[in-house]
Amino acid sequence: VSPYSHLWDNGGDAVTELKRVVELRKIALRDFTEKKIRVNTPMANIEEVLVPIYMFHRYQTESAVKVLGGADYNFALRGDGQVIYEPVAAVKQREAFNALMQTLTPEFLAVPDHILKMIPPRAFRYQPNPRETFKRHTGLAFDPLAPAEASAGMTLRLMLNPERGARLVSQKVLKADLPTLAEISSIMVQKLWKKPEMFKNNSYYAQIDRMVAMQFLDQLMKLANNKEAAMEVRANAYGAIDDIQDWLTNNTVDGAGFARLTLLKIRQFEENPDATISASPLNAPEGAPIEPGYEWLDVDCEWN
């Protein structure tokens, strides 16, 4: 809930720091060369160096997303004069949303061409540590879409967290100018789906756009079918799915295969939500610092 409590972020303002981290990451990827590994090291091993640079934004993203539907609060006592519960200002929440949306663009997610050309299949006896490399759909070859899928999936899961959704639904009760889940989901549909250019070609950017759009739809379906989520949250998710379906039905787009797959998936979901098959996105390689954070507070924790 609090935008000020996160283990692995930096800076005094989570959103401002995310913007700075994004720029630093851009420079690091631009300057990424084979000199990042020792001479006579297999070139495929450079992927282990790429992972923390490509995912450099991951912890700051986790921090910035707390601004969305977040609040400043204290464990106040009667009469102590502390702020009890104050939602984050509307302008700051919308700034956070816009910053997060930038991490879902193909310009951000694409692996630079000069890096893609550096990574061959793994040499014999130089198998990767699966905890330090990207999962892939391409077998032995490096998957150009895998890093984008891992990063986008992480961000979408954070943004469409059911508890965050419930706070977005209810926070307007406290202040009329605060963003709502309906506003957020409508903008996401507009920016991630209603873009005819992503249907028109098979370019790298278009493939990333389609992948992100489908992941967004999958997250909406999971949210709509989440029996534990608030009713208003589920209703908003269903509304966003209907918006996508209506737009695809009423607009003639190229790339009919992708549109057909999407409409088929939505029809299957409407007929039997529990049986709809949504592929789990490739998760980002593990990378959290050693400190376990607050997992020990979880009621399901089974540490010995």
Largest sheet: 2 strands, antiparallel
Structural class: mainly alpha
Given the structure, what is the number of helices?
12
The helicity comes to 40-55%
Task: Give the amount of beta strand, in percent.
Answer: under 5%
| Domain module tally | 1
Quantity of strands, as a count: 2
Topology order in helix (H) and strand (E) letters: HHHEEHHHHHHHHH
Gyration radius from CA atoms, angstroms: 21 Å
Q: Please state how the strands of the largest beta sheet are arranged side by side.
A: 1-2
- The pLDDT mean sits at 90
How far the N terminus sits from the C terminus, by CA atoms, comes to: 29 Å
Tell the overall outline. globular
Catalogue the unreliable spans.
292-304
Could you walk me through the main structural features you see in this protein, from its secondary elements to its overall organization?
The chain is mainly α and 304 residues long. The chain has one domain (14-290). 48% of the residues lie in helices and 2% in strands. It is built from twelve helices and two strands; from the N terminus they run αααββααααααααα. It has helices spanning 14-30, 46-54, 58-64, 90-102, 106-109, 113-116, 146-159, 162-170, 181-192, 204-224, 231-250, 256-271, and strands spanning 71-73, 85-87. The model is unreliable at 292-304 (pLDDT under 50).
